[in-house]
Amino acid sequence: MKKTIMLVEDEPRIRKLISDYLLREGFNILEASNGKEALDIFNTMNLDLIILDVMMPILDGFSVCKEIRKISTVPIIILTAKAEEEDELLGYDIGSDDYVTKPFSPKILVAKVKALLKRSDSKDSSHLNLLCFKDLSINKLSHEVKVMEDVVNLSPKEYDLLLYLVENENIALSRENILDKVWGYDYYGDIRTVDTNIKRLREKLINMAELIKTVRGSGYKFEV
Predict the structure, then answer these.
(1) Which of 2, 183, 202, 221 is the most exposed place for a label (fewest CB within 10 A)?
(2) Which H or E element spans position 61?
(3) CATH code of the domain in which 174 resides
(4) Is the pTM higher than 0.85?
(5) Which neighbouring-strand residues pair with 51?
(6) How far is it, in rounded angstroms, from Cα 157 to Cα 197?
(7) Is 48 in a helix, a strand, or coil?
(8) What is the rounded distance in angstroms from the CA atom of residue 169 to the CA atom of residue 98?
């Protein structure tokens, strides 16, 4: 899916230059010529990154950055002629992710855009792979399970069992279903294998064992 970038710049020539470079890289571009337009677009559109000039009419870029940072962590690159150290420090203090001074290289700016988006995607991915329920956390990337920050040592099958229950939260799962999904359809062991592993899992989860409910006449479910 194409990433959408808002380009906020009051100088049409610079705006066209940057826009042309970004369009060639396959980005969707939304343009604003002043701070007010920028906030209007921000409040109505889903943005992946913002390139923000500072010295603009109606509302300056620093003020726009402050307003956006009150409610969003969208990556922001400040692009400005204000090259004093104090201005750059202010830019970072109010939440910008990068600070580029004019004159600038469009190719370097595009490279910075790509790097920030890659970093942002990585953060989003990490967030999606960390599951938290009360004092229980599961890191799907490292296969690490913690209860109140203490690592819980699970066997591979116990981990798979816990993850399957969690990913089907609030759904009553039969023992047969659990056996097929966790152990595989070609597993010929006794169905009581599920009960045995549930018991061990509960023992290891200590006070978080209560999240694994027994469904009478059916099986088990994970419920917060």
Answers:
(1) 2
(2) helix 61-69
(3) 1.10.10.10
(4) no
(5) 7, 77
(6) 8
(7) coil
(8) 40
Total structural domains in the chain? 2
Q: At what angle do helices 85-93 and 61-69 cross, to 10 degrees?
A: 20
Return the DSSP state at 179.
Answer: I
**Residue after which a domain boundary falls, among 127, 150, 182:** 127
Token pair 């006449």: residue: 217
Each residue's pLDDT, cut to its tens digit, for the chain (224 residues) gives 789 999 999 999 999 999 999 999 999 999 999 999 999 999 999 899 999 999 999 999 999 999 999 888 899 999 999 989 999 999 999 999 999 999 999 999 999 999 999 887 766 555 567 888 889 999 887 899 999 989 999 999 999 999 999 999 999 999 999 999 999 877 777 888 999 999 999 999 999 999 999 999 889 999 98
Whose tokens are 């409610």? That residue is 71
3-state secondary structure 71-135: CCCCCEEEEECCCCHHHHHHHHHCCCCEEEECCCCHHHHHHHHHHHHHHHHHHHHHHHCEEEECC
